[in-house]
Amino acid sequence: MDTTRLRLPGHDVLEHTLTVPLDHTAPGGERIEVFAREIVRDGGADRPHLLYLQGGPGGRADRPARITGWVDRALDDFRVVLLDQRGTGRSTPADALTVPACGDAEAQADYLAHFRADAIVADAEALRAELTGGRPWSALGQSYGGFVLTTYLSRAPHGLREVLVTGGLPGLTASAEEVYRLTYARTAARNLEYLARYPADEQALRDVARHLADTEERLPTGEVLSARRLRQIGIRLGADLGFDALHHVLEAPFVTVGGTRRLARSFLADAGALLSHATNPLYAVLHEPIYAQGSATRWAAHRLREEWDGFAEDADPADTSRPYHLTGEHVYPWQLREDPALAPLADAADLLAAKADFPALYDPEVLAANEVPVAAAVYVDDMFVPLELSRATAAAVRGLRPWVTNEYHHDGIRSDGERILDRLLTLARQ
């Protein structure tokens, strides 16, 4: 392992690069790099390690320029390890430039199949061996990071001292269909809550969608903005401050130029920032495969969207007798062809959606006998990780202490991380 030492005020920053197998079941084959940034508060060199796993899939670890929030609180007790999960950040990237170099779509899909939670756990175990000398470490997972930690508890519980999860207890046996049925229902409810706060935004959304039906508008990245893609800005509905952020996008979408109404450059820039997957392509490519355990997902979110009034792909924005909902954390096959950051991976993503032999990620028997202290923040109004599935998993993992709360939405750790971490540490250590 290679390590570079840097400084932030009051802290050592150790940047680690480790070489691991692409396929941990074939250690003699292709190898990739995994990167982690370790932060150590002055005087805290003897503290135990806390591994942090970011949400996603496809989200790189935080890059703190200042030590604030949950990181600041964690450094009182730990050395904090921020792992760039394989394929993200400074770990060997998996994106529209690198993955096509593997070969045809089948070769690309075979490569990307090694980027799920089981492989991330194996990477973390290799890193732990280097950093702790084999001692177990604590771990904190936000959103998808909690999914990965549930796999960790299933496959390598000996590596864990305690586990903390925020908004990320997955259904242990839930199919993609089960997950998306629940998230569509919650997304519909969040649409209504949003419009109750900002009722004028419904007409603004419909006006923009109607405009896009007969006027070509391009995002700053160059691609045409379609009405169906516009609706994906609804991913912000699930954030703690998402309603206000969306309102600021929709508050003044049009300008008039030479007597012609066009979308404002500022609107297109704001919408593009919500829609592009240039910085996290694995989010779209692997979003459904993270739920695959012995069966193919077959683009479940796309197949199921017609079951709810307001989500139909061809819904008419001019028909005010029917709801016209924004979508949420749902990925669609056409999306991978409309976003230039995803288009080179679209055929491989189709093959992953058809792949029926992904292994199980969670072991209910191991979890039922769990001996690792686990505490989890479960958010009642979480739009992305259904409450019903999280409650069931909390009951199925021996000794897990849930904190079920409606104080936050999915990303509460961003707005109140110190309090949330404090609460979880207290629960885990009771």
For this entry, give a set of tags.
430 residues, alpha/beta, nine-stranded mixed β-sheet, two-stranded antiparallel sheet, 16 helices, 11 strands, globular
Task: Write the topology of this structure.
Elements lengths: L1 E7 L2 E11 L9 E11 L7 E5 L15 H6 L4 E6 L20 H8 L4 H16 L4 E6 L1 H12 L4 E7 L9 H22 L2 H15 L12 H4 L11 H9 L3 E4 L2 E4 L1 H11 L5 H6 L13 H5 L30 H4 L7 H9 L9 H5 L5 E6 L7 H10 L3 E6 L6 H17 L2
Parallel strand pairs: 4-5, 4-6, 6-7, 7-10, 10-11
Antiparallel strand pairs: 1-2, 2-3, 3-5, 8-9
Helix pairs in contact: 2-13, 3-4
Brief account:
The model has no long low-confidence stretch (mean pLDDT about 95). Strand 6, helix 4 and strand 7 (about 160-165) form a beta-alpha-beta unit. This protein is globular.
Description:
Helix 2 (105-112) crosses helix 13 (346-354) and helix 3 (117-132) packs across helix 4. The chain has helices spanning 69-74, 105-112, 117-132, 144-155, 176-197, 200-214, 227-230, 242-250, 265-275, 281-286, 300-304, 335-338, 346-354, 364-368, 387-396, 412-428, and strands at 2-8, 11-21, 31-41, 49-53, 79-84, 137-142, 160-166, 254-257, 260-263, 374-379, 400-405. 46% of the residues are buried. The two termini are 36 Å apart. Helix content is 37%, strand content 17%. It has a 9-stranded mixed beta sheet, with helices on both faces. It is an alpha/beta fold and 430 residues long.
Quote the distance from N terminus to C terminus.
36 Å
Overall pLDDT score: 97
Q: What is the beta-strand fraction?
A: 15-25%
What is the overall shape?
Answer: globular
